[in-house]
UniProtKB/TrEMBL annotation:
Record keywords: Cell membrane, Coiled coil, Membrane, Transmembrane, Transmembrane helix
Signal sequence, renumbered to the chain: none
Transmembrane segments: 51-71
Protein name: Lipopolysaccharide assembly protein A domain-containing protein
Segments forming a coiled coil: 76-110
Pfam families: LapA_dom
Keyword Phosphoprotein among record annotations: no
Gene source species: Lutimaribacter saemankumensis
Occurrences of domain Lipopolysaccharide assembly protein A (ranges): 46-97
GO cellular component entries: plasma membrane
Domain of life: Bacteria
Amino acid sequence: MRYIRYAILAAIAVVLIVLALANRGSVTLNTLPGGLAEFPGMSVLSYSVELPLFIVGFGGVLAGLLLGFVWEWIREHKHRAEVVRKQSEVKKLERELRRKEAKQNEGKDEVLALLDKAG
């Protein structure tokens, strides 16, 4: 199974390298469109940078993955909170059970208390 995983990862790496080599041309990324950047006061927000196309593509994929992970983490918060609440309830009930068993076995011989607890 490990070798299958390595083979798939190697295939993905080869595809990504081929894509990077095929898309080495430079593109200009602008934070604002040309018409909007000409409005007064908007020049502060206007930036541009030249990058190879494959970096833009890989960056977009990476940003999408990160956004998806964060979205799922936020979406699953209610489930994690419910698990924490149930775990604390179980601990509370276990403490209560131990107290009741200790009270029930009070005054008994230790061996008999262990036998009662075992079954």
